[in-house]
Amino acid sequence: MTSTVLIASEEDAWRLLTEITEGRLLGPEVQIEFQDWPTITLRFTGPSWNETIPARMLQPVLELQREIYRSYALMKYGDQGVRLSKEEKSQLEIFLRIRPGSSIVDAAASGSFNELLKGVLMPIDQTHSTGIILGIALLYGSVMMWKIWVQSREKIALSEMDFKKEIALFEKEATLSEQETERMKVFAQAMKMDDRLVLIQEGVDENRRRLLTVMRPGDAVNMGGIKMGQEEVSHLTRNPRKTSLPVRTDGIYRILQVDASKNDCFTLKVKGVEDGQTITALLPNTYISTDMQDALQNAEWGRELVRLEINAKSVDGQISNAEIVSCVPAGSSAT
Q1: Which CATH class is domain 245-329?
Q2: Which of 2, 60, 117, 255 is a plausible cystine mate for 211, CB 3.0–4.6 Å?
Q3: pTM of the shown model
Q4: Which residues belong to CATH 2.40.50 in the chain?
């Protein structure tokens, strides 16, 4: 006999996901149905909006639709980039409603998630598939997941700003309650059920960032009680500053190009023999000896290899600010 479990709220979703992570098994006779949830509700305010919303604010809201398409493609076909049919897109369509009284947008997605349930890759058991879809629904529709995202962005922002000057911006409603902290642990368990949840979370989080980047001075957005103005948002949406690390890239190189147009240095384009990496590096005149000049000339004109010692900086694996401090023929040892 078939029994239907309705998911009509965030509370319902957390309750069932908690039971699943604690070992509850769902047989094939159990049917899960989303009813009027998830609904993503955003309250926008801005100067002289008067129950209207600028097109720039709707763009990232509409991007939610594309994220749902990508989630479905990943779950059904194993690839987020698969092009869906018109019929599939129609079945996954979310509906936007702008409520009177203020600029409130409801994005209703229950129908989309009922379709997602049908699209989970097989063979997979009912418990596993339900846990995955509940996890996805909570990523999109849970107020708590917004709080977690805001907290993660706060940590990045606070690590890069004047602490005393800016800390007041982040003393807000994004603090997690004891219950929400426990639910974080539940979601962490759900993430272990399927690696695809990680990819979907990255897409949803990027959509949140895009939503906030379109805000201008005087704008504000409220999501589940978390109200943020443009000043706060500018810190949350800032990408983390990349750290550069000093590195040495010594090795055997082929000289591809020498530019002597500057008075105080040569600019060399070199290619590593072992790794094939191409680097543009400066060779200050203060480092150039007669032997180095001869080695460079032979390397450029005679296509001979040279051994270079290079000081540089690495940012995300990319070499920058490279400076040659020694250049000798490949068969020699650097001094």
Answers
A1: mainly beta
A2: 60
A3: 0.65
A4: 245-329
